[in-house]
Design a protein that fits this description.
alpha/beta, 9 strands, about 30% helix, two-stranded parallel sheet, 7 helices
Length: about 240
């Protein structure tokens, strides 16, 4: 299996409501098998075990982009975010373009702490003809769940480095994290993209089941624009309010 990576960061968000004593907070994470969910669940366990009067209940699954909306509404207390996704929410763009209340809800979301999201890994099998990102033209690719932050970032990176457009130049399959992972494991798609800190459980499982060694491909030929799109650039401010 060959893998290329792109680094990213994530953050834990908190609703603006004040905490009372003997409080139980509700946290939502993405798919429980992913490293970011494990990080957040570990944080919840540490807090629950060591902070008197505070317990955190964790619910795994769903998209962090939707969880942020629920934090803003007050239905959740904690969820994952990122600088890019927060800015899209506050501006009502991309996956939030049809969510009229998103900009106002963003005002109710504040940053609690940062943690590494990990590198965006673009993986293919060792016997694949795909050697650089330009070669994914005509291929079937899992970029992440459509409408999620991972999909948006991976799609933008491919467009910026190759000029290829998801849904036009290659097939961007619709799947959640679990089914996208299984599709690549079963050999039904050509490329699997996931953000995680190495060693990644998903890629360890791939190599155990399929047997190929990991390979880091050479730099893309960049036939498209060399400029990183604005939605992928690090914003000046990741949240309007911070704890």
């Amino acid at each position: 299996m060959r893998i290329t990576t792109l680094a990213a960061t994530a953050a834990l968000t908190l609703g603006t409501s004040a905490l009372a004593e003997d409080t139980t907070l509700k946290m939502a994470t993405i798919a429980p098998s992913l490293g970011q969910a494990i990080t957040m669940a570990t944080f919840a366990n540490v807090v629950s075990d060591n902070v008197d009067g505070v317990a955190i209940e964790v619910s795994g699954g769903g998209a962090a982009t939707l969880h942020m909306m629920e934090v803003g509404r007050g239905n959740l207390d904690l969820s994952m975010t990122s600088p890019v996704i927060y800015n899209l929410m506050s501006a009502g763009k991309a996956m939030y373009k049809n969510e009229a209340e998103a900009p106002e809800l963003a005002k109710n979301v504040q940053l609690l702490m940062w943690f590494p999201y990990g590198q965006y890994h673009f993986a293919v099998r060792a016997d694949s003809d795909i050697e650089v990102l330009d070669d994914i033209e005509g291929a079937s690719v899992f970029l992440g769940p459509q409408g999620g932050g991972g999909y948006n970032a991976a799609r933008g990176w491919v467009a910026a480095t190759t000029g290829l457009v998801a849904g036009e130049d290659f097939e961007a399959i619709k799947a959640n994290w679990q089914t996208g992972f299984q599709a690549f494991l079963d050999g039904k798609i050509d490329v699997y993209v996931n953000g995680c800190l190495d060693p990644c459980g998903q890629f360890i499982q791939f190599t155990r089941n399929r047997g190929p060694a990991l390979y880091w491909p050479r730099k893309p030929r960049r036939r498209g624009s060399r400029k990183i799109p604005r939605q992928m650039a690090l914003p000046r401010r990741s949240a309007r309010r911070r704890v």
